[in-house]
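Hi L., both proteins are below.
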Amino acid sequence: MRRIIIKGLPGFIVVILFLLSLGAQSGETNWKEMETRLSRATGEEKFNLLVKLTGYYSQNDPKKALSYGGKVLELLKDFPGFPGTIEHVGLLNALSLANASAGSNEEAQKYARQARGLAKKINDRKGYAKAVYNLGRIYQFKSSYEQAFTYLEEALEIFKEVENWREIGNVFNMKGMIYARINDYSNALENFLESARAYEKSENKNRCLAVYNNIGVIYEETNDYENALRFFNKAREIAGEVDHKRAMSITIHNIANIYRIQGEYSEALEYADESIKIAKAIGDKRKMAFDISFIGEINRDMNRPRQAMENFSRALELAKQVNERELMSKIFWLKGALKGELGEYTEAVSLLKQALKLAAEIEALNEERDAARELYKVYAAVQNTAKALEYHIKYKQLDDKILNKEKNEKMTVLQVRFDFERKNKEIELLKKDQKIRDLQLRRHKNLIYSFIIISLLIMIAAGVIFNRYRFKARINRKLSEEIENHKNTACKLRESEEKFRTMAEKTLVGIYIIRDNLFEYVNPRFLEIFGYTSDEFTGRSPLEMVLEENRPLVAENIRQRLEGEINTINYQFRGITKQGDTIFLESFGSRFVYQGKPAVIGTLIDITDRRETEEELRRSQKLEAVGILAGGIAHDFNNLLSIIIGSNSILKETIDSRGNEQIQRNLDSLEKASWQAADLANKLVNLTRRQWMIPEKISLWDILKRIVNRHPEVQPLMKDVSIPPDLKPVYGDERQLADVVFNLLKNAGEATTEHGQVSIRSENTIINGRKADIYGIEIGEYVKVSIIDNGKGIPSDQLESIFNPYFSTKETYSEKGLGLGLPICYSIIKRHGGYISIQSHKGKGTTVEFYVPVFK
């Protein structure tokens, strides 16, 4: 009861068909309505309803399907237009399936052959494939696996042509059942997984549920409990989605059994209780009996005899109600064994004898043997030597009988598997060398003619022996050649792998392999880009190396390649090094199969230098263009403002003598606005490199101290000031550099909240060749100034525009400036031969850094 796959082919097929028919329940109401209509229908409507109901019930209720199908066959003569149609092919296939489900293989085969012939005649490819599939299914029932595989492969080829994923899933599922029957679990698992993928593409959740359970049991049989639980849980999830309580109960029982096998009894009890609740809700007493007995066995394993005995008693009552005699026999011996362990020998003997008698009646050898063994133990415990010996002999006889039966079954399965594999190898060899076969046939024919002349009987026998010897010799030679070819291929593969590894270790680009969303391999250059060692990188997820904002992009690109939606892709993203630095990366990757699983292989290039150089060049060109334009108009603009300011002064003197105060205030406002316009013109001039400056040896230490200590707009903001006295002197214009520091501090203060903090730090530093190329400055000594705030930060999509003229991040019109502060700072620092940059994260604050060359 705990397994979806039951040992023995008939049980295996019955349960599979049960689960594959679950999908019909969602449309049960419609079919009930059709049956109601059938009772009132006549003529063509009745005929069409009978055809549809036959097809529907062919899997779910074979008896009903055969009843409806028989009525259709009786009415065929009244509908001459029906024979020879696609619907007729569907009816024949439905009758074949119904007969097979009812156990009438000969009738099923007859209808399948009729369907195949008619489908071929009218060129119905889908109907033909379905008929061929039914034939393969029938031969599988008859254990004729070679013929079954021949038909199934033919059906699979056609279903793939028409992309019928549901039927493709059915074929792979049937192949998986055959391999499971001959204990070839590797091939069984491979075909069940293919079946699951096909059902997923057809969005058939009910069939996925059945196959997931089958896969879980295959993993359980091979002791891979982790994967068994994974697929049982997937089946449980789908059972919940389609709201099928019985399937849910069976799946949860499977999960409980996995936990019991691993000794995790509390989890096993939890899942078993859940299974009982579901079985009780649907009124399935048989399932409840099995589940309660299972809980009793868990309690017995946990050395809790009282609880176990209570469970066995409850399960026995339910088993009696549904007349589940095999379970009753098992419970009798479980209770008897437990009573024997507790020393209650009289009750133990009574229960075990009931178990022995019931097991013998239903020919349940395992339960009969177990009961005899427990009786032997009980009688031995009470020192009844005669009875102990009697039941010990009986136990050994039953055990030998079971062992012989299992041995015969295993030998039969092994023989079938051996014959099956041997036949496949022989067919493969014969197909590879058709010329040898033709030559042997010709020689055989010539030998027959020669032997007839001398002595027909003697020469025929000699010819047969001779040909068999030669045939085996050729097969042996072919096998030797195949082995040698395999060795050569393996050698070439090793050489190829060695070449790839050598190339990967020496290349200047990063190379990676991703499988199951983890890095399987990275080369030294890849490690160098991120600053890790090979030991630190083992088992890491690719997303750990990606900036949080770019993780959805990278995750989606990896998923699309692993799932086969795209084969190759090229894109750029931002990564994070071990030291926490942000770098720009370009990746090119392709999908391939690595050690039997889908994987991604690709290259990674660090393009941080290129991106920053391009950005610096673009920013300089833009500012230069704006500066040239501003410088061209600033002179004329100032001349016009001089006339306005001068005329306004004359008017003020004249009006002031007459005492008109209102006009005087208006003229004051005009003068103030004119001076503001003149200041704007000066700011525009600051954008051009042609602005006049007075370079000299100056101390940034003095400038920073003066601004921090003397400017009231800045001083209240400062929480962390680090201005070492050993700052080296720089070469530049003191007034302009002071404007830069003041402007940046003012911006930092405006970006902070009520309790915000602004820090200023400075240090001597050296710019090396790599940074110099990126920043576009000379190699040498510099003074670095950093202004840090913990304010609202700047969104990443605005950072690239932050140095553009007239661009402002302030949200309201009243707060917005002219958008010239940072561009002017940028222009001044560049004019001094330095570099300025901004790093910011929304909600985390902003850091502005600028470098000024040391005085030489």
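That was the first. Here is the second:
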Amino acid sequence: MAVSTSSLSPGDGSLRGGPSTLTPPLGSATESSLDSGILLDRSLDRDLRLSRWMGWRLRLLVVTALAGCVGLFFLARWLGDPPHIDASWRTNPLGQLELVSSSDPQLQPHVGRALIGIVGGEVSVAVPDALALQRSSRWLISDADRERHRALHEQIAGALAQQNVKLFFSDGDMVQLKLQRRGFAGLGGMFWLLSAFALVLYLVAMVVLLAKPTGRNLLYAVMALCQTGNLAFIAVESTLELALPPPFPAIDMPLRMAFDLVTAAAMINATCLHPRRLPGAGWIALTAWTSSAALALLIAQGALAEPWWWTQGTVSVMGALAIGLLTWSYRIEPHPFAMVLRRFGIVTIGTWVLLTLALAAASRVPGVQHNIASIGSMIWYVFLASLLLLVPFLSKSQQIMREFSLLAAISTVATSLDLLFVAVFSFGQFASLTLSLFLSLGVYAGARQWILNQLLGNSMLTTERMFEQLYRIAREVEDHPERTPVLLSHLLRELFEPMEVVVVNKRSPVIRVVADGSAMILPVPQLGGDNGIDEAEPRAIVLRFAHRGRRLFTSDDARLADRIVEQLRRAVAFDKAVEQGRTEERSRLAQDLHDDIGARLLTLMYKAHSPEMEEYVRHTLQDLKTLTRGLAAANHRLSHAAAEWKADLTQRLTAAHVDLGWNCSFDEDLLLTVVQWSALTRVLRELVSNIISHSQARRVDIDFSLEGDRVDLTVTDNGIGRNPRAWSHGLGLGGVRKRVKQLGGEVEWREVSPHGIACRVTIRDFSARH
């Protein structure tokens, strides 16, 4: 079962569309390219594809659709024309045909009686048995039973071909009936349902093949057409009353076995080519096709003993080989399609093997074998046809595929258990059905979440971590908008766990899933305002192979990514609004301090009664100017801030007759936020004030360094301070600890030799704290 894909070239950052397979027309061609950003080009491309479709392929599709509808009409008319007996039959414990019900008044008195003979014209059939109700010789294990089944059906069909027939019952009575044609209404609802299903599968195969005539799509069409044939045979067999019309008894077994063998060979060929071409793919496919063709030819010629076992075993081996090839493909390149197809393959082949074993176990009980062959085989073929029908829409209808997979899984388990209970434990129909449904629903209810996780995968990024990452990225993007693609890529990598994340210089107007779900394209949002990424150079993030290649991207993933981008955009806008409000409030406070408190201090300085008081007020006024200038500025260059710190501390220490040793080094002239500038300024002032007030020091050495993202600040004095661990930390030293902690750092006081105290401040992630 092949599906389309595309590959990403990390070297040139472009998405190259690969061969498209199993895709609906008019859909996936544009999705596999990143060059469709210009609306005019996309419009012209759509017009070109539409005009191309209005050519020979569209006309051929109409012809094939009409051929399918006409074929169904003639099949129904052919089945409705022959005369028939309006009655229902079943097998009694003795293996005889027993009349169950009839709307014919002549037959109603004989309900519950066994039919022992049929005479029509010159054709007579004595004692028809349970093989008359066996719908298909395809599921008869014994060669002798298969030959007797063909002969019996041909005899009964010959007898019923006459307009007048005689039926002999076990009570000795004989009923002579004039048969009537059944018409379309007499074919039954099951015939029309299966026929419609076969017609839809046939049309989907033709659409896929004509939309993109490639080798992979041809393989899909071959598998779909083979299963269309199987469904058509099952539909015909559903009209069975006592016999199949000729030539179905003769062609049923060889044709249906050929359908199964061709499907298995096409499946091997498809897994060799998709999702990637395997080494030696040509030889593997050739071996599969040769084996299937040789086996089908031998079966058709009747030259092979036990053809049923040969067919069942060959299909089982090829199914296991296909699963092995998908595993090999996944190890070479962890494409999620390999994992998805392998899961469906395991369920499909497992059910096939279970059906084979159930029929073999029930081979000695004709009635049970008939039920398993009729019901079990039909469920298996409908399940396989449903998978083929939905594969082209795998990347478009993830929710439908998920729910269908769950429904198919629980139905398969229930049916398999029902067949097992009937065949092995000889339970009654009601008891086996009830028990199998109860057990299946119990397993399903307990394992639903695990099944969903296996089908779709689950993200390891918790909600708490995701929001933490979002707001950390928002703060960093606000300062460094050029890093938006890198930061957003990191978040998406944690959320979806892709095998590859690439930033490409391409335009993508919206978030979309491409390459049938193996990749997702996300446009990089403009989050930095005027200083952000230049809109003339659009960027897009391409993620490939979600959950380490174990699942496909879905439309739910695209919506989640869109919500994340929107939340990131709102977070950045919120931070900008908050920062703008802070800046305006700081400017107002600075202006009020300058106009009010500054004016009062200036008046007080001129009215001072002594030079010492005038000098003290002058220093206070200088500190106030420094504070208001810092509040009014949104940020500060580290070099400017260091110069202000040195000038301020020099002035204060000189007035206290203390020498200053200053050493400042940094490898990057950062822009300090108001929080960082304010905290460092107050820490330095408080430490120096504490030294002037208490240490009686004659010298203070200040060493400030910034290396990478680590800040080290050391303030050392040669005063009389001792044993800092015994100090009582009041408002001053407590304020130092609080402001250092606000920056994410640590502070420590220790004695130095021969005398004095050193205070060391360490901030390891300086830029992470604003």
